[in-house]
Amino acid sequence: MARPLARHSSLRVSILTLALVAAACGDEGDEAPPSLSVETPEGLRAALEQARSGDVITLEGKAFEGNFVVPAGVTLDGDGASFIATGAVFKLTGGQETPTRLTNLTIESRGVGILASGGGEVQIDNVAVAAITGVGVAAEALDKLTMESVTLDGPIEEADLPDIGGTIDGRQTAIAGLIVSGGAVELARVDVTDFAGFGAVLFEVQGSWSDSTVSGNVGTSVLIEASTLDMAGLTVQEARAGQKLGDNFISIGVVASAGSRLTSNDLQILGGRGVGLLQDNAFGDHTDLTVRDNNDTGVWVQNALRDSDTTALRITGQASEISNNKGVAVFARDVTGVLIENASISNTRLQPQVVGLASIADVGDGIQLVGTSGSVALRNLQIQANERVGLLLDGTSDEPGLQTAFDFDQITITPPEGELADEVFGFLTQNGAPERDTLLDGLTVSVELSTRDIENTRTLDVTETTDIPSAGLIGENGLIGENGLIGENGLIGENGQVGPEGLIGENG
């Protein structure tokens, strides 16, 4: 569990307006900027109430309890100060001409560490939030949120996993590190660890997230819905799963859905208990992607049939690796456009997967493409040591009649070693996909695999599409809706469970 912060009551505050700072630097005879010393949290509240856009309030590294409202355009510089409270520790209103800024402080929260709303821009930098319950940072309807060098730590330890599953109560544990609904985001060095439910939720946002680690979260580490996001240097690792029986509780590294467009460079998804990357009705363009050591499918793309000139999945660069996953390394079903080049796709282990309405079969495929359309280009791929088949094309489609143009070049398919070597296949087509013999140009299949492919007379089971952690979570009454988690009447809203009138609020 997160370690409680030290508690003190004394605090020194100085208020410096930008105009007075400029005058002090340049005009002789002007008064020095006013300085206000306070001993109680009430003194800080009074200072914040008096502050105006452009003012800077600097604290001298003390620690105390309380809930505070930072007005639009005001900077609160903690200078190492620490805060602890139940409810919303800080409420920020975005600044219009000058961003509202929170910097250089630590927070321990039971409810929400930072709640930002009201349009305008908010900047959060050099801040650490230890969330015991609720949410670390929640932002709704800002024009822009900038976060830099921020750590969001939840309380979940390995010993907690047997009690996690089904419905997760935000009053009992921390259910999300970061939730952003609407506006532009610029996130750099924002690390999110050990939350139950979600690491980060980004809904209807546009922007970037770079140079960060999302680790040890239970459920979905990163949920990107109806958004356009550029990820660079992001590592998502050790996504965990609750062990208590419950409805639809799964573990996924990154989910992109609802028309999202995700661009990544050097995205790494490592060591998760479930699927690595899941795209549902979304489009991903990934350069130098690494998805490794996950306990389910590495890259899963579904439900993105569009016009023939679109590409649902692009994996490019010089050194992508999808290896040591289970089920399928790269699975695409009912999508338009696939491009995978310069990648190693290897060592996919057998795993029971849903292959029909009520059927389960062991699957261990390098690439499985079902019902694709448009351009499917596979180039310079090493498909090695997958435990069922290296490359499987299946023509089954929810929209039969769509055309697919296959382009294969410099693909090498080799078998695993050991006892499975005599049971696996190299390259198969079935259920209306083009005949295998018509697609051999550009493929090199080992002799033993090729012989077995030619002799094969059975149809392999293919993986079904899956539900995603989306429906009901975000919407009018959902996670971020009017009556949802951070809505007006929601868990953290004005009248909600941790709001000022709510269960844990001032009058709760």
Which key phrases capture this entry?
mainly beta; disordered N terminus; elongated; 30-stranded mixed sheet; 3 helices; 508 residues
Quick rundown:
The protein is mainly beta and 508 residues long.
Describe the fold and architecture:
The chain is mostly beta strands. The protein has a domain at 305-468. Helix content is 6%, strand content 51%. The chain is built from three helices and 30 strands. It has helices spanning 18-26, 41-50, 447-455; strands at residues 11-16, 36-38, 56-59, 63-65, 68-70, 75-93, 100-117, 121-140, 144-153, 174-193, 196-215, 218-225, 228-237, 252-257, 261-265, 268-270, 275-280, 283-287, 290-292, 299-304, 313-316, 320-323, 327-346, 351-354, 360-370, 373-384, 389-394, 404-414, 425-430, 443-445. It has a 30-stranded mixed sheet that branches. Strand 24 (351-354) and strand 25 form a beta hairpin. The longest helix is centred in the first third of the chain and has 10 residues, at 41-50. The radius of gyration is 26 Å and the shape is elongated. The relative contact order is 0.08.
